[in-house]
Amino acid sequence: MSDLRELYQELIVDHGRHPRHFKKLPNANCVQEGYNPLCGDRLTLYLSIENDRVIDVSFEGAGCAVSIASASLMTEALKNKTLSEVQLLFDAFHTLVTTGTDASQETLLGKLSVLAGVREFPMRVKCATLAWHTAIAAIRHDTHPVSTE
Ligand code: ZN
């Protein structure tokens, strides 16, 4: 178990240091800003959505390793998902980092499961969920910037 924990930590550190899809998306038709005042994490999420499917996704921002790693892992997970699949993933991820998830959700979550450990650190839950709240607001075309407070 401790080996697995180390592997998870490595993945978070790796994504925190070298975030994937960290750029502006020129053809985005959905742009949303998110802010976590508790930690100071800020990000802008870019989505290109066609026929209720995420064609492309990227983000830019600055924040702690957990917020950046979570956003990076999320962009990998959201690509080519339908909007209803995005909502399902959000629900599963939210459960994972708050109350804890059962084994049946692990296949759905895949690599996102590496963030399960933040559950033990309530301050970090908002860092991990910021990108996700931002994505859901973007999909709903909520024009207000997202704040976790
Ligand atoms: Zn943070």
What topology does this entry show?
Layout: H1 2-17, E1 30-36, E2 41-50, E3 53-62, H2 65-78, H3 83-98, H4 106-109, H5 122-139, E4 146-147
Parallel strand pairs: 1-4
Antiparallel strand pairs: 1-2, 2-3
Helix pairs in contact: 1-2, 2-5, 3-5
The structure holds zinc ion.
Contiguous uncertain segments of 5+ residues? none
Based on the structure, what is the oligomeric state of the protein chains? single chain
Number of contiguous helices: 5
Q: Which strand order spans the largest sheet, edge to edge or round the barrel?
A: 3-2-1-4
Mean pLDDT: 92
Largest sheet: 4 strands, mixed
Taken as a percent bin, the fraction of beta residues is 15-25%
Whole-angstrom Rg: 14 Å
Structural class assignment:
alpha+beta
Tell me the helix content.
40-55%
Written as H for each helix and E for each strand, in order along the chain, the element string is HEEEHHHHE
Small-molecule binders:
zinc ion
The total of beta strands comes to 4
Calculate the terminal CA-CA distance, rounded to whole Å.
34 Å
Which descriptor suits the 3D outline? globular
Q: Top keywords for this entry?
A:
149 residues, alpha+beta, four-stranded mixed β-sheet, 4 strands, 46% helix, 19% strand, globular, binds zinc ion
Can you give a write-up of this model?
It is a single chain. With 149 residues, this protein is an alpha+beta fold. Helix content is 46%, strand content 19%. The chain has helices at residues 2-17, 65-78, 83-98, 106-109, 122-139; strands spanning 30-36, 41-50, 53-62, 146-147. A four-stranded mixed sheet has the order 3-2-1-4, with helices on one face. A hairpin with a 2-residue loop joins strand 2 and strand 3. Helix 2 packs parallel to helix 5 (122-139) and helix 3 runs antiparallel to helix 5. The chain is globular. The mean pLDDT is 92. Zinc ion is lined by residues 36, 39, 41, 63-64, 66-67, 127.
